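Exercise 7b. Backbone tokens:
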């Protein structure tokens, strides 16, 4: 299976860019991350996400939503709110969230 970026969608749509640095505490993080992926996948406006971490420890996750209402529903999910609270207390040294409306989008996939 090859790794592919999230495909381009018909604009406008919304993206949330979550940049972070982690603490050394990993307790419960993998399980919570798996649960968050499960929950956000039930949001009808959720389009997908991409995530990477640099060797220096900077993590960036970009999540895509059809509209601001879908992103708001994700932000207001009670389990997500609990995970955000635990992230601030246990897992993250720092984080920043940027939200933007995508006005233009296109992609390319090499055939063969």
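Sequence design result:
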């Amino acid at each position: 299976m090859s790794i592919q970026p999230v495909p381009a969608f018909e604009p406008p749509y919304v993206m949330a860019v979550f940049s972070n640095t982690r603490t050394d505490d990993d307790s419960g993080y993998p399980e919570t991350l798996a649960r968050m992926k499960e929950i956000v996948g039930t949001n009808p406006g959720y389009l997908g996400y991409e995530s990477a971490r640099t060797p220096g420890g900077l993590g960036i996750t970009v999540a895509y939503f059809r509209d601001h209402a879908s992103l708001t529903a994700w932000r207001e999910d009670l389990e997500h709110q609990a995970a955000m609270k635990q992230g601030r207390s246990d897992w993250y040294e720092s984080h920043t969230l940027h939200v933007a409306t995508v006005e233009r989008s296109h992609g390319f996939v090499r055939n063969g």
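Instructor comment: The radius of gyration is 15 Å. The mean pLDDT is 95.
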